[in-house]
Amino acid sequence: MEKYIIKGGTPLMGEVEIGGAKNSALALLAATIMTDDSVVIDNLPDVRDINVLIDAIEGIGATVKRNDRHSVCISGRTIRSFCADNEYIKKIRASYYLLGALLGKFKKAEVTLPGGCNIGSRPIDQHIKGFEALGATVVIEHGMIKVKADRLVGSHIFFDAVSVGATINVMLAAALAEGNTVIENAAKEPHIVDVANLLNKMGANIRGAGTDIIRIKGVERLHGTEYSVIPDQIEAGTFMFAAAITNGDILVKNVIPKHLEILSAKLIEVGCKIEEYDEAIRVIATDVKKSTKVKTLPYPGFPTDMQPQMTVILSMAQGTSTVIETIFENRFMYVDELTKMGAKITVEGNVAVIEGVDKLTGASLNAHDLRAGAALVLAGLAAEGFTTVEDIHFIQRGYEAFEEKLSKLGGKIEKVDSEKEEQKFKLRVS
Ligand code: EPZ
């Protein structure tokens, strides 16, 4: 089984290009099937989840033409099946965006129910609340969620939880409903705005995306267009934090600094220097990191997808820090892995208390989920000695060319598939 082998201790220095936002691209791809015309999506990240969703969309009969690794042309004209339960659908949670897209265009959809995952139960009750408010009936049976409506009619929807997925899914369905829809307590992440911008380019009428009230005037049909995915806020943040963790100096290019403001603020709080440019951010780390407090919140608060990376910074800060996870109920599983490296962290419920240590030491680690896996790699790049990270398929779901980008910054990391390859790496870097 492939794993990463890492030799720590080299500060990461240089420039890194950020790719398109995975969590935006997944929703944008679902939106493309809502028209019979062709829609081109550019700046796609070449990562597993994106490629699986494109295969799933082709699997329900859409016409898909890959322009290159980062660009695809899709048309919903040839869709005949509204039942999405092919082998690809089951592999990713974001296939639930096909519910909103198919319901909006065809007034019916059946999608394999996404399960929970390592970070929490991941309910979809708010998605269902939104669909029912628009006039759909929702039935869950045999592991499928089935939605259908004679007519979709605009409604005033109050979400009980701020949900990225539910906000996007209801926006997709409401775009082609009759009349006006208002979504209150909407999520405000940059990718919500990205999806609204694509839908509006396709002829929808959506206002207020990015605020907590989104107003949608349903239209008859949507038409083709070309659209480019925004830069990935979490990939950018991961490389910004990599500079802090390894005491390096990294220019993170092709970003939207506004989307990263909370991350820059936290890096300044722990003692890093930030230089902000139009489409880039430079992070210059200092040797000594100060402790701080972090609480994950919906955007523009501190993103839960950066929580593990923040904990790694604080594990080597001076003094005691706290990290409070308010979004998912099980997002500290990676702490046991950091403990193997000498970190001193106690977790009580959704609060981690971190007593900073002078250094981490290399160990054999397991990635439990996408972001925790990335955080463990960064910890290994800072630790003394060698670290291995297993289950790297989690990381490959959301980071394109992760080890290549880290190597270009001077990181000593390689993907290996055997003991022999591991030994060769150790000889080469020693
Ligand atoms: C998206 O998940 C992202 N995934 C997650 O990123 C991210 O952590 C999360 O948003 C929060 O930003 C994708 O976009 C594919 P939510 P999503 O609905 O939409 C509760 C990564 O690493 N909730 O905003 O599933 C839920 O339990 C992944 O890239 C309900 O109660 O997240 C959670 O506590 C991990 N009922 C909170 O809302 C619902 O119907 C936020 O979940 C839906 C959600």
Question: Brief overview, please?
Answer:
With 430 residues, this protein is α/β, with parallel strands linked by helices.
Structural notes for this entry:
The protein is α/β, with parallel strands linked by helices. It folds into 2 domains: 3-19 and 231-429, Enolpyruvate transferase domain (UDP-n-acetylglucosamine1-carboxyvinyl-transferase, Chain), CATH 3.65.10.10; 22-228, Enolpyruvate transferase domain (UDP-n-acetylglucosamine1-carboxyvinyl-transferase, Chain), CATH 3.65.10. The protein is 32% helix and 25% strand. It has helices at 22-31, 48-59, 97-106, 125-133, 164-174, 190-201, 233-245, 261-269, 307-315, 335-340, 370-382, 393-396, 402-408, 419-429, and strands spanning 3-7, 13-17, 38-42, 63-68, 71-75, 83-84, 108-112, 137-141, 144-148, 156-158, 180-184, 205-207, 213-217, 225-228, 249-253, 273-276, 280-284, 293-295, 320-324, 344-348, 351-355, 364-366, 386-390, 412-416. The strands form 6 sheets. The chain has a 4-stranded mixed β-sheet, sandwiched between helices. Strands 2-15-17-16 form a 4-stranded mixed β-sheet. A hairpin with a 5-residue loop joins β12 (205-207) and β13. α1 packs parallel to α2 (48-59). The longest helix is centred in the middle third of the chain and has 13 residues, at 233-245. It starts with a strand and ends with a helix. The mean pLDDT is 96. Bound molecules: ligand EPZ. The site of ligand EPZ has 23 residues, from α1, α4, α5 and α11.
Classify the fold: give the CATH topology of the largest domain: UDP-n-acetylglucosamine1-carboxyvinyl-transferase, Chain
Q: Count the DSSP helices.
A: 14
Mean pLDDT: 96
Which stretches are poorly predicted, pLDDT < 50 over at least 5 residues?
none
Tally of strands: 24
Shape: globular
Helix content: 25-40%
Q: Main sheet, how many strands, which sense, barrel?
A: 4 strands, mixed
**Which small molecules are bound?**
ligand EPZ
Between the first and last Cα atoms, what is the distance in angstroms?
A: 24 Å
In CATH, the architecture of the largest domain is Alpha-beta prism
Structural class: alpha/beta
